[in-house]
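Re: heme C structure - here you go.
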Amino acid sequence: MTTTLPKRKTLLLNIVFVVVVLGLLLFLWNAPPETTPRMPPDENHQRFFAMDRKEAESFCETCHQPDGISPLSEDHPPTFRCLFCHKLPE
Ligand code: HEC
Ligand code: HEC
């Protein structure tokens, strides 16, 4: 058995490949903008921007806990690494 495909089949595969790639690009292009709020650049958060992520995360819950000054909503996703989801402001 020969391993080279007949010419027509190769052409077909190339077309399929291009269509799939275009489809993916279109899909990514249309993806909704991310909705996770970024850390606001205010006096509460400014000091975390220079900090190591893990170190910074150990402070979040002093304010963002149920009886803190800015409790998380009830449907907030699991919170174990805040800064994986909440990016710094642009
Ligand atoms: C000193 C208290 C304090 C600490 C510590 C703190 N925050 Fe906040 N945070 C606030 C307050 C108050 C608000 C709401 C008012 C505002 O937007 O600044 C807020 C708002 C936010 C928001 C925006 C929410 C929205 O709806 O836009 C995010 C995201 C956030 N904090 C993440 C964090 C993360 C992650 C950390 C740890 C690195 C952290 N915060 C540490 C007080 C704090
Ligand atoms: C798995 C991703 C993820 C992690 C981890 C995470 N968050 Fe969030 N957070 C979100 C999303 C998504 C929203 C928007 C929720 C909404 O709009 O209902 C949000 C919203 C918030 C808000 C706005 C108030 C609210 O509850 O809607 C604050 C403040 C906040 N997060 C702080 C934190 C802190 C502090 C931590 C770590 C203890 C953390 N987040 C960890 C994804 C995450």
